[in-house]
């Protein structure tokens, strides 16, 4: 540019490429100006379309916000915590399933649920058969340092047979020469059995011997030789030196493998040969990271595996109603400090709640609610009951339908009992002129007689429904052609509305004078008396002389009534 451009206008051509803008003509007054599109900056809006969301991410291209996206699959425990971070609640962690299987020689015990608060605890005990199948005692013992069998346990299993002496106390076994006469067997100076040469010949001994498996025997010479089996494939032979031989390469060594278990690592060394025999060793596997997430409490020491109390105490915590001291492992009940708590510790250190006070007893109840005096219904009578004349009711107590209410004395009562009064009456006699002659009545004359009866309602609760009957006998002497009438008013209360007189007899006498006796009766209407009130009921009879002569002598009668409370 410096070569082709000077003071005058530049003749060079400048072409703008992608993203570049060129202005000016290259002259002094209008030099080329080269600039990047967009002012030379890259904005967030340019970058956001370059991003997208993959699995587990939500992305908003409009704002550029990127957030974690928990799955909506059922059972997902992942969520957004209150601080905006990802969270898996502790309760969603499912403990690793763990089971144990016992064997005839090992008893495994699994405790805990596999959670941090309650980790799995696996223990194992060797199972010792308390009744071995042979019928004897088990000689294996379990001590604080492991299993053992001592010589003293085994010695009782042995006994002496022919030619042997045996001491069970020491386990000493010795040959026992016979005491029979002529026996030349004795003990030599070195303690071995000795038969003096010449005392017993070879010919005497050889018949005592015989060949077992793998041997042949010549009783004539006393020679024993090895006897290889004639089975097909047997590679055992007699070597050139007269010894037994199995040619090299014949027969494979016994194959032996070991298999580890989750709790035991086995190691196999050697090749099974006489020079290098197989040797199996084992080591217990200690889980450095138990599935529950805590530390492994099982420890290995020079004398074996162990777990001490101090290792276990940290696994426990106190929940509601408990207090726990990890240093000592002491667990105690914890009483609430809430007001009104009745729980306490008894004199023996146990939890104690004093007996509750007797409940308040309201209407219709007796007793205090204790076992000796339970709550019962306070009744005012005992079934069966009797009626007013002492006869038991024909119904049973399930057929009574009276309402029950609580009385002022605190007992339950039913409706007030009904009362019936029957056969009450009052007799009377009346003469118009006491101590004198009969009353001679003239035409148009009326003689009125009344009789009052006092009557009371004995019930203080119920109204009394009453009904009365009155009867009277009138004695008259009537003349020839006389005409007379008898009127009667039913029994009624003096304070009730008056009832009209009723003509009970209307008589015309024929010729001649004669005595006349007339009996009349009347029935009142029904009437209800209020509780505890009294009434005077009145009976009235009128004798009218329509046309005389009529001579009235006397009136005899009675008033009968009965009532029933309702």
3D structure, described in words:
The protein is elongated. The protein is mainly beta and 566 residues long. The protein is 3% helix and 36% strand. Strands 31, 32, 34, 37, 38 and 40 form a 6-stranded antiparallel beta sheet that branches. A 4-stranded antiparallel beta sheet has the order 33-39-35-36, with no helix packed on it. A two-stranded antiparallel sheet has the order 1-2. Among the domains are: 1-34, no CATH class; 361-415, no CATH class; 420-565, Jelly Rolls.
User: In CATH terms, what is the fold-level topology of the domain at 420-565?
Assistant: Jelly Rolls
The helix fraction, in percent, is: under 10%
Rounded mean pLDDT is 77
- Estimated structural class: mainly beta
Q: What is the first-to-last residue Cα distance? A: 139 Å
> What Rg, in angstroms, do the CA atoms define?
67 Å
What is the number of helices?
4
Regions with little confidence, pLDDT below 50 for 5+ residues: 1-5
The coarse silhouette is elongated
User: How big a fraction of the residues is strand?
Assistant: 35-45%
- Give the beta-strand count: 40
Q: Please write the CATH class name of the domain at 420-565.
A: Mainly Beta
Largest sheet descriptor? 6 strands, antiparallel
> What is the CATH architecture descriptor of the domain at 420-565?
Sandwich
């Amino acid at each position: 540019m410096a070569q082709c451009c000077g003071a005058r206008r530049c003749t060079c051509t400048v072409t703008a490429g992608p993203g570049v803008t060129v202005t000016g003509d290259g002259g002094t007054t209008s030099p080329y100006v080269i600039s990047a599109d967009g002012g030379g900056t890259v904005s967030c809006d340019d970058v956001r379309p370059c991003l997208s969301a993959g699995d587990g991410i939500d992305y908003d291209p409009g704002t550029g916000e990127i957030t974690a996206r928990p799955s909506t699959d059922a059972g997902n425990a992942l969520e957004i915590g209150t601080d905006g971070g990802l969270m898996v609640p502790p309760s969603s962690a499912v403990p690793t399933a763990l089971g144990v299987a016992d064997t005839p020689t090992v008893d495994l015990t699994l405790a805990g649920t596999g959670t941090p608060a309650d980790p799995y605890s696996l223990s194992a005990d060797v199972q010792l058969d308390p009744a071995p199948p042979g019928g004897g005692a088990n000689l294996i013992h379990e001590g604080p340092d492991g299993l053992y069998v001592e010589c003293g346990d085994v010695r009782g299993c042995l006994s002496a047979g022919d030619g042997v002496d045996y001491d069970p106390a020491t386990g000493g076994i010795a040959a026992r020469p016979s005491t029979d006469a002529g026996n030349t067997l004795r003990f030599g100076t070195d303690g071995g059995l000795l038969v003096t040469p010449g005392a017993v010949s070879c010919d005497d001994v050889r018949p005592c011997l015989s060949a077992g498996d793998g041997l042949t025997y010549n009783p004539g010479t006393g020679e024993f030789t090895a006897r290889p089996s004639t089975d097909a494939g047997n590679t055992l032979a007699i070597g050139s030196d007269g010894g037994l031989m199995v040619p090299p390469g014949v027969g494979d060594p016994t194959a032996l493998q070991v298999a580890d278990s989750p709790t035991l690592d086995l190691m196999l060394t050697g090749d099974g040969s006489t020079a290098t025999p197989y040797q199996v060793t084992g080591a217990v596997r200690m889980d450095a990271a138990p599935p529950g997430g805590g530390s492994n409490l099982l420890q290995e020491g020079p004398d074996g595996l162990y777990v001490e109390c101090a290792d276990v105490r940290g696994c426990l915590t106190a929940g509601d109603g408990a207090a726990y001291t990890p240093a000592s492992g002491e667990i105690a009940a914890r009483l609430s400090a809430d007001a009104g708590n009745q729980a306490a510790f008894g004199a023996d250190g146990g939890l104690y709640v004093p007996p509750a006070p007797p409940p308040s007893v309201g209407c219709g109840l007796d007793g205090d609610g204790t076992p000796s005096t339970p709550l019962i219904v306070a009744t005012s009578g005992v079934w069966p009951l009797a009626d007013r004349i002492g006869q038991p009711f024909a119904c049973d107590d399930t057929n009574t339908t009276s309402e029950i209410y609580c009385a002022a004395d605190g007992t339950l009562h039913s409706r007030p009992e009904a009362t019936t009064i029957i056969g009450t009456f009052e007799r009377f006699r009346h003469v118009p002129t006491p101590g004198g002659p009969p009353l001679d009545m003239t035409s148009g004359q009326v003689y009125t007689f009344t009789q009052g009866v006092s009557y009371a309602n004995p019930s203080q609760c119920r109204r009394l429904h009453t009904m009365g009957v009155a009867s009277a006998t009138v004695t008259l002497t009537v003349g020839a052609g006389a005409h007379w009438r008898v009127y009667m008013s039913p029994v009624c209360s003096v304070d009730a509305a008056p009832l009209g007189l009723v003509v009970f007899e209307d008589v015309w006498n024929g010729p001649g004078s004669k005595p006349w006796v007339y009996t009349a009766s009347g029935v009142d209407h029904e009437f209800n008396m209020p509780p505890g009130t009294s009434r005077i009921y009145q009976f009235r009879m009128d004798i009218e002389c329509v046309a005389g002569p009529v001579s009235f002598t006397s009136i005899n009668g009675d008033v009968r009534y009965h009532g029933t409370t309702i």
